[in-house]
Amino acid sequence: MSFINYASREINCKVVYYGPGLCGKTTNLQWIYSKTNPELKGKMISLATETERTLFFDFLPLALGQIRGFRTRFHLYTVPGQVFYDASRKLILKGVDGVVFVADSQVERMEANLESLDNLRGNLQEQGYELDKLPYVMQYNKRDLPNAAPLAEMQRMLNPGGITEFEACATSGKGVFETLKAVAKGVLNDLRRMAR
Amino acid sequence: MPMAETQLVLYDEDYRKVLGVCERLARDAHAKGVFVVDKNGQLMAEAGDIRGIDTTSLASLTAGSIAATGGLAKIIGEEEFPIHFHQGQRDNLHMTVVAKRIILVVIFDERSSLGLVRLRVKKAGGELARLFEEIRKKSERARSSGGSPFSEITDDDIDKLFAD
Lengths: 196, 164
What we know:
The complex is a heterodimer.
Chain A: E1 3-5, E2 10-18, H1 25-35, E3 45-48, E4 54-67, E5 70-78, H2 86-93, E6 98-104, H3 110-126, E7 136-141, H4 151-158, E8 165-167, H5 176-195
Parallel strand pairs in A: 2-5, 2-6, 6-7, 7-8
Antiparallel strand pairs in A: 1-2, 3-4, 4-5
Chain B: E1 8-10, H1 12-28, E2 33-38, E3 43-48, H2 55-75, E4 83-87, E5 92-98, E6 102-108, H3 114-145, H4 155-161
Antiparallel strand pairs in B: 2-3, 2-6, 4-5, 5-6
Helix pairs in contact in B: 1-3
């Protein structure tokens, strides 16, 4: 749920990075944080366990620039990917404006990807959203690994509808900003569509 | 299936009313800072004399905390825990859920007391609940009338954001 503030002339939007455990959601945000000018970003918050697994969420506020005199701000969140943190994932999806699904390309993680995508769809439905009606981008992460599944297979399994998709390697930054730009554009287009 | 929340639009005049309530609360409760945060983690207004704190993070973590305890409440059969109090060595944090959608945060130290803060928050919370009901109705009207600044944006406007 975006928030338009006429007093500060700002528009705030919420984007959630979703996906199975260890797929690279936090790494996406860390890359964005490390490569963004200090004046355009706020502090990155990671609520993580001692072993650096996301416990509740990561949060990164980003300023993208102005549209028609309004500063556009995106609040990027990740969810904890591990299956048993489902209650937390539901909370973080509240008020979402756009979703990035980060899929783990490793062959042995395909089932986890499918399970997480199903979980995303179900959790959105519980809150009155339809995944297919939200700005939504698919990222195939870890394409650099030798055990990565063929792209065509990932597309067939995870993206039969052919939404915008990117191959990525979040540790080296490949595809990270492309994914962010695509989801941000989707959110802004959606705002325009809703406003008309 | 529940309805997804509608977009929230805060106009200047409403912002000034919200800010007025916050400033009065900060004064009457002898608080260091008062913040109004949307349950989704957006900061809407702040008052008081706290300088240099990261208000964006404060807003996001406040929403996260309220969401987590709200989840706990449901597990034990409560709808919500509407009042939260965290006592620190120097500063204390008081959070109240207002009108199910807004969180009123008060930071105070030994110059005030929990009793005074609770008393003042109760009154301010009632005023904010009425204001946000008006704001919600206006947001819905704005949405249905197409009065958003975003109805006019072009592909070019969006592309320019990503020019570099």
